[in-house]
Amino acid sequence: MKRIAYACALISVLLLSACGSRADSGNSSNAAAPEQGAGASVVTAAAEADGGTTTTRSPNPNDNIDYSHSNLKTIYLAGGCFWGIEAYVERIIGVQDVTVGYANGTGENPTYEDVVRGDRGFAETAEVKYDPARLPLPELLTDFFKVINPTSVNKQGNDVGINYRTGIYYTDKADLPVINEVVAKEQKKYSKKIVTEVLPLQNYYLAEEYHQNYLDKNPDGYCHVDLSVLDQVNDKPVKVDPSLYSRPSDAELKTKLTDAQYAVAVLNDTETAFSNEYWDNFDPGIYVDVATGEPLFSSSDKYDAGCGWPSFTKPIDPDVVTYHEDTSFNMVRTEVRSRVGDIHLGHVFDDGPEDKDGKRYCINSASIRFVPLADMEKDGYGYLTAAVK
Fold it and tell me: Which residues have a catalytic role annotated?
């Protein structure tokens, strides 16, 4: 179906080109998908002719992430025509690499012609290598379900055939309970039964080279996936796992910290404005708890408030700080402390930038440590690089 439609569409494009015209309109999706975001979409005559969409493809955010120190895992996802699935999944932050091929069929070394005949039972599949520290499997699978119709049997978009079935194929048995839990949650969204198959990977054969990164090579090519969903998928709040950090004893902190750091962090002192380490530092990176290393703030949320202390519009994760009433010095203020370390960080005020919710987190340099963007990967904070703009 895809090949026939594409050939017809190509003829349409040639005819339209001869007339010097091109059709433009908003995109559509055959899978149940959220409302389109800010990313504009363009449907060319080729895509319009076969019912697919050709969306403006944004740069791949993963190209700017160093995965050399990551413990990558692999999962195999079948979601209809693999051109669109590849273009979508490879742009989800946390995905290191995607190839497309043919999975869970009979016989060896199938060609595309073998697969579309359907008699060998292969599914068009994307091999997805991802960093679970940045992109946990439940999150990746939930993102996958956003662009498929999991209740449709052997059909996605306008493509019909057993090779267009949906499936999740795993190589690690430990992934099965996770997959089943995600499928169960997705089932609650549908009245029809989900038919996406969940099976061990039996085989996977890399597809022909012209299929790899097809939509990057052919921007006007057929795509049944609404790529504007990426606007929402990649705009997720950062979550920091508190179990990764622990608070040293006060005696250990006395040895670990300088006298000035201990006075501020443990004894609730305040450092001098305009003469502390980070008040005028605007290099890209993150700021972590000086006692535990737990991430607290991102340079992307730092601004010059003119007060002489590091100022931020928000924490990197709302849960990494706690709030306490402070009535010292005959004032009523809101103290900010770190979650795991429970050290004094500073105070939060309501005189911050109005377009950033009006908050100003006034933080002592002595209570935080700066990790430059270039060092985040090797220091174990690579999963937060997307939070540093």
Answer: 81
Q: Where residue 69 falls among pLDDT bands split at 50, 70, 90?
A: confident
**What is the C-alpha to C-alpha distance for residues 194 and 189, in angstroms, rounded to an integer?**
10
CA–CA gap between residue 387 and residue 280 (Å, rounded): 20
Assess contact for 284 and 386: CB atoms under 8 A. no
Sheet holding 321-326, edge to edge: 302-303, 311-312, 360-363, 344-349, 333-338, 321-326
Residues 346, 334 contacting (CB under 8 angstroms) = no
The one-character DSSP state at 379 is T
Answer whether residue 339 is part of any domain: yes
Domain boundary among 219, 235, 251: 235
> Are both 98 and 219 inside the same structural domain?
yes
Domain end (from 235, 251, 273): 235
Which residues lie below 8 Å from residue 302, measured CB to CB, with a gap of 6+?
Answer: 282, 310, 311, 312
Residues 46 and 49: their CA atoms lie apart, in Å, by: 5
User: For residue 260, what are its two tokens?
Assistant: 């000035």
The per-residue pLDDT for range 18-68, each reduced to its tens digit, is: 333 323 333 333 333 332 233 333 333 333 334 455 445 678 989 888 888
Please name every residue paired with 295 in a beta bridge, in sequence order, or none if there are none: 288
Of 28, 235, 39, 29, nearest to 148 by C-alpha is 29
- Residue of higher predicted confidence among 331 and 64: 331
Per the CB < 8 A criterion, the answer to whether 339 and 243 are in contact is no
Residue with tokens 């979650």: 339
Spatial distance between the Cα atoms of 296 and 346, rounded to a whole number of angstroms = 12
Q: Are 195 and 153 in contact (CB under 8 A)?
A: yes
211 and 250, same domain (yes or no)? no
CA angle 300, 303, 307 (to 5 degrees): 150
Tokens, residue 371 = 């990790």
Per-residue pLDDT, averaged over 122-127, amounts to 98
Written as one string, the DSSP assignment of 14-33 is HHHHHTT---------SS--
